[in-house]
Design a protein that fits this description.
Elements (H helix, E strand, L loop, with lengths): L1 H51 L4 H8 L9
Length: 73
């Protein structure tokens, strides 16, 4: 009986480590997603500012080194 309990405890410890790893990775992905969203918003604001300043979409794309489709209003 003691051996079974030990095996169960070991299995539970492995399971805990697995879930901890998954939670850590999920947190990393959430942080990356937030950073990407922030950078995307910054890029959108920069595009709008340059377009509002009178630059053509082609010039905005060239200035920011991005695809012209991203500059189309």
């Amino acid at each position: 009986m003691a051996a079974v309990s030990s095996d169960i405890r070991q299995d539970m410890n492995v399971e805990d480590e697995y879930y901890s790893y998954l939670e850590k990775k999920e947190t990393e992905v959430m942080i990356r997603d937030k950073i990407i969203a922030q950078k995307d918003e910054q890029l959108r604001k920069s595009i709008k500012m340059l377009l509002d300043a009178g630059l053509t979409p082609e010039k905005v794309a060239q200035t920011l080194s991005i695809d012209i489709d991203a500059c189309m209003p």
